[in-house]
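Worked example

This section walks through a single chain of length 209. The input is the sequence exactly as stored; nothing has been trimmed or padded.
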Amino acid sequence: MKITAIKAQVKNENRVSIFVDGKYSVSLTLDQLLGQKLKKDDEIDDARIKELKKLSDEGKLKARATEWLMNRPHSVREFRDYMFKKRAEKELTEAWIEEFTDKKLLNEEHFARWFAENRARKKKSNREISAELASKGISREVASTVLTELREEKTEEESLAELVQKLRKRTRYQDEQKLKTYLVSKGFRYDDIKHALEESEAKSDLNPI
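Given that input, the structure is written out below as tokens.
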């Protein structure tokens, strides 16, 4: 048997269709094609075609897995569960975990922070969040670090809110721009200042003097 044509796919420019003896046989990504060093008029047998079909399936699964990972942060345990449901070989799963971790598509701390912030907005306690993180495969060390950081940030936000309420009572800081300038000089971030001022304004509307 012989490869009679290698054609770029219309709907996916990153994949090519390989024809053997004039009939479609298998599709590969461009990287896979180069890696396999395939070209037109190469002789090929059934065993080789079987290898290429397996490689093709892996390429399609990798594309789906990458899209899944980019949808939102995920833990390594979630990724293993995803690959298990896709009936992927364990060796392939572990290899991709290493690769996706290197590419920052898998990041335990990033996931833990995203998850904890989400749960905190739903008024979950730190104990509840910690337990849920553990169920997602996050270590105690990572969970503790993330929850401590969130607690410190919350404390800073509360301190800023109190400071804004206090300063707004002073004639000098009735001018909002002067108040913002002062708070920036004290090291507070502009976005946090803006949020604190909006919160303060809302409270003033609810509780007019």
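What to look for: Residues 202 and 208 are 10 Å apart (CA to CA).
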